[in-house]
Amino acid sequence: MSIDFKDHGKKPYVVNIEDATVQNDNYRTTIWTGAKLQVTVMTIQPNDDIGLEVHHGIDQFIRIEEGQGLCQMGPSEDNLNFEQVVSEDEAVLVPADMWHNIKNTSDKPLKLYTIYAGPDHVEGTIHPTHEDAENDPNEH
Known about the structure:
Strand content: 35-45%
CATH topology: Jelly Rolls
Number of domains: 1
Largest sheet: 6 strands, antiparallel
Structural class: mainly beta
Strand order of the largest sheet: 6-3-8-2-1-9
Order of helices and strands: HEEEEEEEEEH
Distance between the termini: 34 Å
């Protein structure tokens, strides 16, 4: 089934989230942005990562669909005192205000989806590459 990769937020929407995650080839694509929740699918290339970040006041759920990575979290960007290997079918729960990163440690793309409570990216965000995300003035 072909997925319409656009932001369908603020209206009812049903999607096979596994198919959307696996079919997405962009670094980041927001597929639904509401007032208090956002769903994003991501593809992290080998030897790349999500990027060390923190979401102030926003909890995050991440589910790995394909691939393997290393999850790091901690109270500050220079104190990532939690580290665990993550792989297919595992979920990562990131508390608000917690620094975190997931590095792709495999030789194939790491496919994941993430749910932000509330939204973290501008509605309709598409970043084909990690570099595009880094250079987006709307990203923090």
